[in-house]
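G., before I forget:
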Amino acid sequence: MIRFELPSLGADMDEGTLLEWHIKPGDAVKRGQVVAVVDTSKAAVDVEIWHDGVVAELLVQPGQKIPVGTVLATLLEAGESPMAGASPTAAVAAAVTRRAVSPSARRRARELGVDAERLQGSGMQGSVTLADVEAAAHVATAAPASVPAASGAIDRAQDMRKAIAAAMSRSKREIPHYYLSETIPMARALAWLQQRNQGLPVDERLLPAVLMLKAVAVALRRTPELNGFHREGRFQAAAAVHAGVAISLRGGGLVAPALHDVGDKSLAALMSELTDLVKRARAGSLRSSEMSDPTVTVTNLGDQGVETVFGVIYPPQVALVGFGRLVERPWVVDGSVQATPVVCATLAADHRASDGHRGALFLAELRELLQQPQELDAPAPATSTSQASSP
Amino acid sequence: MKDDRAELADAVMALLCSIAPEVEPDKLDLARPLRRQVDLDSMNWLDLMVGLKQRFGVEVPESDYARLVSLNDVLDELQARLPPR
């Protein structure tokens, strides 16, 4: 019997509301298949399943709000018969019961128009009390009067702000950040891009952001202590680089879903995946793996005009790489000053996982890689760079 | 009756609204720099260029992007590249 749980959707999302099932009992499902849609503060997330099997029972109904880790459904493995073992339904049902709300609190919540299920309870075992409801109603009325007609949109914006606040507060509370910056000359990279894009149809052209993403992923191979997660008191390096791409949303807020295996993909493939990811992020349609997989975050604030960005690490990741605006600056080349396009690359990294020396090596590698853009377009050099230096 | 340029402007405006839904066409000044009036990142800009290709069949070369500062510049570019009617 496989228990299919609501997966983690990132550090700032600990619950979601089931919107719909794409499966029903008796359906065969395959690993990677999207089986449900769950609404979070940031997006409606297509939840994927990571086992092959046959759906036995759906345990959560659309409309229910559920914490991460809740068993959503049970599945039978290949060859397993439906009656093998006791039904887990009873145990599972207990896990998905709604947040405890005292009857008086529930009644008062209805009167005040407060959603008691969403409150942090201060009562026994986190139950929501009358006082919690009244406090919440007080906060709601103290806040600027919201327009009821648009309350859906406002809820989403407020929820997202809260989720970002929680994750970033945790980051600043727990992660000893250190910051490094390096100005990288981009004349070669831009000339190469221009030549590559020339004559290509507009929808096949590459943005500089794609070159930078690839360079980050390749450079991280040399400094694996910047790519992975700090969990349970220790750092675990990740095998692949799944870059969380920070995407600002038009209504405010941001998401940083994963582009998978960035180091192994061609620039053309990355460009089309990035285009698709940005489109879906802004339309509010992402996959659960995209929300939970990023091993590092890359943010590109240059389009908004700033030269330098010092990022806040998204826990449990241990590094964030930032790029500012491409600007022309006086630059000394072979003893003479030239107007040269440059970009400021920054690294915010977790001192529990790495030291400034390693961070500096990463930025130096990034700078070197961006001087040889054609190499970044070559098929994956695998781990050759790191192996070359070993005896 | 609307002239060609006004029709073009309407079509470009519709495209822009699909990329940046918060845009209010009446409030945009065709002569002012577009990116000072609308929050467009490089991906949005590329979307606009792809949209122009799909809508009008016009491929704007990357080397021309720097000239396209205002919406009027974009309309000039389109008119120059569209076959005369």
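Chain B touches chain A at residues 20-22, 39-43, 46, 49-50, 52-53, 59-63 (CB under 8 Å). Helices of chain B lie at 4-19, 34-37, 42-56, 71-81.

More on Monday.
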